[in-house]
Write a structure and sequence with these properties.
- The chain is of the alpha+beta class and 145 residues long.
- 32% of the residues lie in helices and 32% in strands.
- It has one domain (2-104): Gcn5-related N-acetyltransferase (GNAT) (Aminopeptidase).
- The strands form two sheets. Strands 1-2-3-4 form a four-stranded antiparallel β-sheet. Strands 5-7-6 form a three-stranded antiparallel β-sheet, covered by helices on one side.
């Protein structure tokens, strides 16, 4: 597998991975309703957002997106057939390294508050700390340099 920076040509495959997840599923229409479109992702990648993908052959198996302007990790998704192989951990390590290299002392993300949701435990195992329940019901996590 190849880990590399995301480019605009990856966006269709990123949407394929995103719409195929087991938990926190969103359809293309649901994402569009909240402003997540191919055009919006492309604009983000041209700005302060950086993305990474893990590629196997000509298919993406996972991706992550983070905003260097505010230290937010706002996407990390792994294709169903590649879960449990350390891919999420590998991507998160890349994201954290980049964000902290920018001089940020604290980075953050939000995820489902439900402890049965795998992402919740995943972030805890990687050393992220709870930082409060958000008004939309999401749990905020932070990690400090």
């Amino acid at each position: 597998m190849i880990l590399r920076r995301a480019i605009p040509a990856d966006i269709p495959e990123m949407f394929r991975v995103r719409t195929g997840v087991r938990e926190n599923h969103m359809s293309i229409a649901e994402m569009a309703a909240v402003g997540i479109t191919a055009d919006s992702i492309e604009a983000m990648l041209a700005g302060s957002v950086r993305g990474w993908v893990l590629q196997e052959g000509d298919r993406l198996v996972a991706f992550a997106l983070a905003d260097g302007a505010d230290g937010c990790v706002f996407a990390l998704f792994v294709d169903r057939g590649h879960e449990g192989k350390g891919i999420g951990r590998q991507l998160m390590n890349e994201v954290e390294t980049w964000l902290f290299s920018l001089g940020l002392q604290e980075i953050w993300l939000e995820t489902d508050v439900d402890l049965r949701v795998r992402a919740n435990g995943f972030y805890r195992r990687l050393g992220w700390q709870e930082a409060g329940l958000q008004s939309d019901g999401q749990q905020r996590f932070v990690k400090r340099a």
